[in-house]
Amino acid sequence: MIKLALFAGDGIGPEVAGEAVDVLKFLFDYSSIRYEIEEDLIGGASYDEYKKPVTERALKIAKEADAVIFGAVGGPRWESLPIELRPEKALLTLRYDLELYANLRPAKIYEELIDASPLKKDIVRGTDMMIVRELTGGIYFGQPRGVFNMEDGQRKGINTLVYTTKEIERIAKIAFEIARKRRKKVLSVDKANVLECTELWRQTVSEVSKSYPDVELSNMYVDNCSMQLIKQPKSFDVIVTTNMFGDILSDESSMVAGSIGMLPSASLNGKKGMYEPIHGSAPDIAGQNKANPLAAILSVAMMLRFSLDMDNFAQAIEKAVEKVIQNGFRTADIYSNASGTKLVGTKEIGEAVIEELKNNKNK
Ligand code: NAD
C-alpha cells in the first residue's frame, strides 16, 4: 500500500495540487494500485484553524508517508505575523524535520513554449538540465550567525559557510545517480578559487566521482556558471552545487522555461521526498481558475520516479503534458496568441492531461 501525504496549502496551492492529485488518482485507479492519501492543512490555512503554520499531526502524517505532495503557502493575510507563525515557516520545518537535503529542480524548454522564454530561441532550444541543490546545510544554516554590536558602536553581521565531507558526499552521490539516468554529465559549481569550504566541496565531489567512471565530471566557478546559463543553457545536464549557489542558479535557470508555472521540484532524503511546484501561492490569481497546474502535475511525475520507483508512470505524465502543450492548450501564463493555441483554465488543462493519459492507455 502506497501512503502519501497531501498539503495543498494556500492561494492557488489547492487548485494546482488538486489537478496533480486527480492525475495521480487516474493512473493508480486505472492500474488497480492500492494507495491512501492523508491530507492536512498547512501554512496560512493551518494558522487560521490551529494558530500554527504546521501542526504535530501534519508532521506525523509527513513522517509516516512514503512521499509528500505540497501545493504552496503564504499570502498577504498572514504577512504581518511574527516570522515563526508565518505560512512559509511550515515549508522550512518540513524540509528540516524530514532532513530533505537534496533539492532537484529540472529546467526544460518545450519547443512549443520557446516564445515564452525571454532568451533568444536559438539559445534556449534543446535546453534540458537538472539542478541538484544542497538544501539543509551551507551558509543558510552555519553557525555562528546573527547581527552583533561591536565595541566601537558599529554593528557586525555574520553568516558562516560550512560543509562536512559527509554532507558533500551524499549530495554528490545523488547528482551522479541522476546523471546516470540522463546524459551522464555532472558539473559541480563552486567558488574554490576564493572559499576554502568550496575547495573541500570540489575535492570531495571529485573523490565521489571515482565510483561513477561512466559519468563525466567537470567543475566551474559560480560566477562563470551564471554567465554560461544564459549563454549556452543547452550545454548543461546535471549541475550540483551548494545551498546558496543552487538557490540563485535555479531561479536563473527557470527563465529558460518561460513560466514559473511549468517548473516542478523534488526535495529528497533517500527515497523519501516532498514534491512541489517551485512557485508560490500566487494570491493575485487565486480562486480564479487561472493558475497553471503543470508544474504541480510534473512534480507528481518526479514523485513517481524518485520515491515510488514508477518510472513508467512518470514518463507517461511527462509525455501527456508535452502532448497537451503540442495540442495548443495554454493557461494565461504561457499563452501567446500563436495560431493553434487555446486559452484554458486550471481545470481544463488538468483534464486535458488526464484525457491524454486515457488516449495512451487505450492505444
Ligand atoms: P508567486 O510564485 O506566488 O507568484 C509570482 C508571479 O507568478 C505572480 O504573478 C503569479 O500570479 C505568477 N504565478 C505563480 N505561479 C503560477 C502558476 N502556477 N500559474 C500562473 N502564474 C503563476 O510568488 P510571490 O507573489 O512572490 O509570492 C506569493 C506568496 O507565496 C508569498 O506569500 C510568498 O511568501 C509565497 N511563496 C511560497 C512558496 C512555496 O510555498 N513554496 C514559494 C514562493 C513564494
Average pLDDT metric: 95
Low-confidence runs: none
- CATH third-level topology of the largest domain: Isopropylmalate Dehydrogenase
- How many domains? The number is 2
Q: What percent strand? A: 15-25%
CATH class of the largest domain: Alpha Beta
Q: Give the name of the CATH architecture of the largest domain.
A: 3-Layer(aba) Sandwich
For the secondary structure, the number of strands is 14
Strand order of the largest sheet: 2-1-3-12-11-4-5-10-8-9
Sheet bearing the most strands, described? 10 strands, mixed
Rg calc: 21 Å
Count of helix runs? 12
List ligands, each type once: nicotinamide-adenine-dinucleotide
Class from helix and strand fractions = alpha/beta
Order of helices and strands: EHEHHEHEHEEEHEHEHEHEEHHEEH
The CATH superfamily of the largest domain is Isopropylmalate Dehydrogenase
Shape descriptor reads globular
Fraction in helix: 40-55%
Distance between the termini: 28 Å
Task: Fill in the keyword field for this structure.
363 residues, alpha/beta, Isopropylmalate Dehydrogenase, 2 domains, two-stranded antiparallel sheet, globular, binds nicotinamide-adenine-dinucleotide
Question: How would you portray this structure in words?
Answer:
With 363 residues, the protein is α/β, with parallel strands linked by helices. The chain folds into two domains: 1-103 and 266-363, Isopropylmalate Dehydrogenase (3-Layer(aba) Sandwich), CATH 3.40.718.10; 118-257, Isopropylmalate Dehydrogenase. The protein has helices spanning 13-30, 44-50, 56-64, 88-97, 121-124, 165-180, 196-209, 222-231, 243-254, 294-306, 311-326, 346-362; strands at 2-9, 35-39, 67-72, 102-108, 128-134, 142-149, 155-160, 185-190, 216-221, 238-241, 264-269, 272-277, 329-330, 342-343. A ten-stranded mixed β-sheet has the order 2-1-3-12-11-4-5-10-8-9, with helices on both faces. Helix 6 crosses helix 7 and helix 11 (311-326) packs across helix 12. It is globular. The model has no long low-confidence stretch (mean pLDDT 95). Nicotinamide-adenine-dinucleotide is lined by residues 12, 16, 72-75, 88, 91, 260-261, 276, 279-285, 291-292, 295, 333.
